[in-house]
Amino acid sequence: MTTSFAPLTVAIGDLVPHPANVRSNAPETYDPENIAHLKASIAVLGLLQPLLVQKIDGKYAVLAGGRRHAALKELVADKATKGFTAKTKVDCRLVPEDCDVTTALSLAENITQAPMNAIDEFEAFARMMEVDGQTPETIAKTFGTTVAAVKGRLRYGLIHPDIRAAARGKVITLDTMKAFAEHPSQEAQCEVFEALTKDGGYLQAYTVRQALKSRGVQVSDDIGAFVREDYEARGGAVAADLLEEHSVLEDAALVETILLEKLGAAAEEARIKLGFAWADAMVRYDYATMADYGRVYPGPNEPDEAAQKRIDEITAELEKLQLEMENEGLEDGAYNALYDRVDALEEEARDLQEAYSAEDLARSGVIASWSGGQITLHVGLVRPEDTVKEEGARGTSANPTGEEAPDAGEITYPASLAEDLKTERAMALGAAMALHPEATLDLTLFKLVSDVLASGMSVTQAIKIDARKEYRSHAKMDEIDETSLEQVAAAHDALDLSWLDDTRAPADQFAAFRALEAGEKAKLVAFATASTTQSCFARDRQRDNLMHAFEIEIMPDIRAHWTPNAALFNRFKKAWLLKILGEDLGLAQEAVTLASSSKKEIVAFCDKLFAEPFATLTDAQRAAVAAWCPPMMQTAGVACDEVELTADTPDPDGEVAQAA
């Protein structure tokens, strides 16, 4: 049956919600933020579709059009909008009072409207600008959105018609179609589309974006922004986009030429300043190619009077900063700022006390590359033909001290990072001790008895048996892996603390403690001893034979209590992360692929890799990921004194100068 509803106009103030409206139980539908677009449209274009109303108790109840009604009320309340008051009349259609299908009418209005096709929306925005003479600003006002959002839709509506037709016919996906908007030239879009589809097959958005990159460089890309001024000065063509950041520098060869010139100039400046023999430039630092290069490092140098004065100033400031950092009331942001300042000062002090030898300067050089949105200088490199090869040794140069120089890209640890790694290792060891109560009880009792009865020095300094909990500080405590903390918490929850009642006298507590089962006592002693473990790297087999052997017994694998995560990787240099991936984990291809990525992207990759090793890994790679940790944190690793020296050695990439 077809029902006709009489048209009429009703004052906005006489409109009320209808109890049969199917959206009446979803008040969030009418929230101001959810009807902002509708409000803006009505303000500019008026009410395009009449409301469906029914007279109830002298008022007109809105049966269908509740969101339009809510938008009208918002316009009345908005004093900045002219032309809408409670007396303003709007078009409606009247449902008879005796109608018995009101709910069906409300439901039909809400569910029979098909959502607008995304491509239709994009093309409609484009037509509004091309045919109706609208601007992004007027369109934004009409639909209550931002100019940037309108320009984003317009860009998709201006993609080449053949590509839009392919998306409409589901030959390609909507996301793939959007990828073509990465280049504003329809000619370039069409050429890429034809090249990628000529052999058939499934076309992916990623493939499109990669292909369009060869057609130019976006001005928002770090390289595009870096060379744009010189590029335009040389008359390079720019394909303008509605969104400025998506405009493209079309002459990719000119972009690369200018970039290499700038890199070369930076390398030459560094060569002159540092006294190297040669300078070179490459867009991306090729780790595979550079593997054959050697590297020289600065050795100890007697500072002159000015340098010594600066070193003394740094020493005084570091002492002051250390005192400030001991303030327990310091907020995290302030503490981290102090921490970064300490790192910078320690690095400056190292640079003042180191220098390259004349022999090394005569055969080494500097290469400038583009990395992470800036120029990176790789200094002290020795070309393969200039590398001193020693019999039975790799083609690396010796450093000025006569000792074998570190491999290029060797990972060293600044003092601040080394101290934090010591803390994390102590936490892992504490967790292992709490999980091995019998062994830890034996260690504790042995320590107590030996310290009293044995002659000579104490058996071990690694634990304190003086009933004082070890305080552990860490710059990023809220970001580190929590495995050991969770294990210790679980061990604490399993303790029998029924004897520890503050209302009892110590003698009564002791009596209750003695009544515990031996296993419960062992857990208590182990937990208490675990809380005293001091921060340290791998034990020296000679200097602390007891703890060296004990750690191997209870913590053969630190990874059972600790997992590397972004908190650690963020403090590693990009070169270190690539070295770990390529050499330690056997992921050479991944390292090469990621070499052109930002450090942030590499950190995210490593974080995911260690959180849940990828299914595509080989057994060897999986085993390497499961076992990896910084060498000094391993149970049976280098000695403590060796690690301390490593922590103080120059950081290879500490010599890397960053220039904008």
UniProtKB/TrEMBL annotation:
Q: Does the keyword Cell cycle apply?
A: no
SMART domains, alphabetically? ParB (SM00470)
User: What ranges does the record give for the region Disordered, renumbered to this chain?
Assistant: 389-408
Give the protein's recorded name.
Putative chromosome-partitioning protein ParB
Please cite one Gene Ontology biological process associated with this protein: chromosome segregation
ParB-like N-terminal domain residues are 8-111
Which superkingdom does the taxonomy of this entry point to?
Answer: Bacteria
- Which residues, if any, are the signal sequence? none
Question: Mind giving the lineage of the organism this protein is from?
Answer: Bacteria, Pseudomonadati, Pseudomonadota, Alphaproteobacteria, Rhodobacterales
The record, for InterPro entries, names: Chromosome_partition/occlusion, ParB/Sulfiredoxin_sf, ParB_N
Q: Which UniProt keywords apply?
A: Coiled coil
- GN (gene name): parB_2
An example GO CC term for this entry is: chromosome
Keyword Iron-sulfur set for record: no
Ranges in a coiled coil:
304-362
